[in-house]
Design a protein that fits this description.
Blueprint lengths: L2 E5 L8 E4 L2 E10 L9 E8 L5 E7 L3 E5 L2 E11 L2 E6 L5 E5 L13 E7 L2 E6 L1
Antiparallel strand pairs: 1-6, 2-3, 3-4, 4-5, 7-8, 7-10, 8-9, 10-11
Length: about 130
């Protein structure tokens, strides 16, 4: 698995964190003041990269969290079949298939280059 360990206080909006085994983009961080009985706490709100589900963590800022290592690679479209697309990684020449995201339906054509985001062994087309 491609991930590293960090703490909640290291997170920033727009960065990534693993919540419930899913790679998520942090959308909001709210910190509370340290109280009489404990340290500062933080509430981290994030959205899953691959499933768009909202997830939250509520924990002390010193708590350790897993941070996914995100890769962004260019890939060439080899073939578009139904709701899927066959791609070839431009650096490793590995071929793989992905579902076509809703926003790119009908826009992909053979020979076109796309930007593919990968994390935790999963991939998704993010840009044409």
């Amino acid at each position: 698995m491609s991930k590293q360990i960090g703490t909640i206080k290291d997170l920033k909006e727009g960065k990534y964190v693993i919540i419930d085994g899913e790679a998520c983009r942090v959308t909001k961080i709210t910190k509370s003041k340290p109280g009489k009985h404990g340290g500062m706490k933080a509430r981290v709100e994030a959205v899953g990269i691959f499933d768009d589900q909202k997830r939250n963590i509520m924990a002390p800022v010193s708590q350790k969290v897993e941070i996914p290592l995100i890769s962004k690679d260019t890939a060439q479209v080899l073939n578009v079949v139904g709701g899927g697309v066959q791609l070839m990684d431009m650096s490793s020449y590995e071929t793989f298939e992905l579902p076509v995201p809703e926003e790119f339906r009908g826009e992909l054509s053979q020979g076109q280059e796309v930007l593919v985001m990968g994390a935790l062994g999963r991939r998704k087309i993010i840009q044409l």
